[in-house]
Q: What sequence folds into this?
């Protein structure tokens, strides 16, 4: 009899037990942290040395590169008002050395906050701000090997609740990454899911996919309302990968084994991507432009690695469309408008307008007002075209545009585009002004 019970226990133990439902919806958050280090909140580059271009730090585009040469370099950012800095992070594309973070209330006396020593194999570099506060934030690099950083963020006490985002029919405004939370965007699903990483995925945009024999890594976003979109991309693990984008007017869900609604991946069998691109060399980033403007609320991003690695991460993603953005919080208000093709941000702190930030159509930044620093003006794209220089540069962004309808035509605003047309990195404009030499 005892052997019979043991046999029953062994048989039960061998049965697959449901732990966490596949395609289980992620927990929702009322407010999502948003980086304070953007022009949208009135932050400017006060001064810099060795950052090319420094203003790319503030554009809110995680794929946009900032080149750093070997040796010493630094950038000083100035917030519209004294701010809390909880953490600072960036993605490392090949640099090796040390970075030190410090803050200041007046730009003269500096308080050290944190530092890190890293190698090229350290992909995500994160510095802990603790309870640091300051009007100025300084990053100092001492590198034995130059390269590129991307996806710079400084997280403080601001959230998406501090921003109002509107889109106009004429498509004016600055590029806004709706995946970062601004405008109410939220991550709904991730598959396959590394369950211990849910908080990072929902709040800090870090998508960590576990070791898996599944063909695709998928993230599904709800942008809060229908958005007009013209670019998608990601900064990810440096491995060859194919990247596809799907758009849905209605979220495809069905009841799971618990009777709860869950995403239905069968929709991908009957849908075509609205945009796709391929990182053929394993550069670790990619951008894709659709053949026509995409109008949709729900966006699914899919990565298909050439082989199934032990893990695959998307450190930042971009779901981008042009919009006008206003900011309000902590005694600061920032309003944006479009003037002669330029986006103009008017920064008001404690009732005084002391800064105007103008971003041109080719990414050039001009700052005027009593709070402007000596190194505030300059480009936000690499006008020296150093992207083909190997170490310290970046390969061109590779992508193809497609016009196939997604989910029975949902999300696509027009006929199909050229399936073989490539895209290049964000506005690599050779006719942009040469960046001025930053002061020592």
A:
């Amino acid at each position: 009899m005892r052997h019979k019970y043991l046999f029953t226990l062994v048989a039960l133990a061998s049965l697959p037990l449901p732990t966490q439902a596949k395609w289980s919806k992620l927990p929702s958050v009322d407010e999502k942290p948003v980086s304070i280090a953007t022009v949208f909140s009135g932050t400017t580059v006060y001064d810099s040395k060795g950052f090319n271009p420094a203003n790319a730090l503030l554009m809110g585009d995680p794929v946009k590169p900032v080149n750093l040469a070997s040796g010493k370099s630094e950038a000083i950012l100035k917030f519209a008002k004294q701010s809390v800095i909880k953490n600072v992070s960036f993605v490392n594309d090949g640099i090796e050395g040390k970075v030190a973070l410090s803050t200041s209330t007046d730009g003269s006396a500096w308080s050290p906050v944190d530092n890190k020593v890293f190698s090229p194999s350290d992909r995500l570099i994160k510095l802990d701000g603790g309870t640091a506060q300051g009007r100025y934030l300084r990053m100092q690099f001492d590198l034995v090997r130059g390269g590129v950083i991307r996806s710079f963020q400084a997280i403080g006490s601001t959230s998406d609740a501090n921003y109002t985002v509107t889109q106009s029919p004429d498509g004016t405004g600055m590029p806004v990454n709706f995946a970062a939370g601004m405008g109410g965007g939220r991550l709904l699903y991730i598959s396959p899911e590394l369950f211990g990483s849910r908080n990072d995925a929902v709040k800090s945009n870090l998508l960590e996919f576990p070791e898996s024999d599944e063909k695709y890594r998928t993230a599904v976003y709800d942008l809060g309302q229908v958005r007009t979109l013209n670019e998608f991309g990601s900064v990810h693990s440096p491995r060859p990968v194919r990247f596809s984008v799907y758009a849905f007017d209605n979220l495809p869900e069905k009841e799971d084994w618990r009777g709860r609604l869950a995403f239905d991946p069968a929709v991908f069998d009957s849908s075509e991507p609205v945009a796709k691109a391929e990182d053929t060399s394993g550069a670790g980033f990619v951008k894709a432009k659709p053949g026509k403007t995409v109008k949709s609320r729900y966006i699914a991003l899919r990565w298909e690695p050439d082989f199934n690695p032990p893990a695959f991460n998307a450190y930042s993603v971009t779901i981008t469309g042009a919009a006008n953005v206003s900011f309000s919080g902590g005694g600061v208000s920032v309003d944006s408008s479009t003037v002669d093709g330029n986006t103009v941000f008017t920064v008001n702190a404690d009732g005084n307008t002391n800064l105007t930030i103008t971003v041109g159509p080719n990414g050039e930044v001009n700052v005027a007002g009593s709070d402007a620093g000596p190194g505030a003006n300059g480009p936000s794209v690499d006008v020296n075209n150093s992207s083909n220089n190997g170490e310290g540069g970046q390969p061109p962004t590779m992508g193809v545009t497609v016009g196939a309808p997604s989910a029975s035509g949902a999300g696509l605003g027009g006929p199909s585009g050229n399936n073989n047309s490539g895209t290049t990195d964000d506005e690599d404009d050779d006719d942009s002004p040469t960046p001025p030499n930053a002061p020592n």
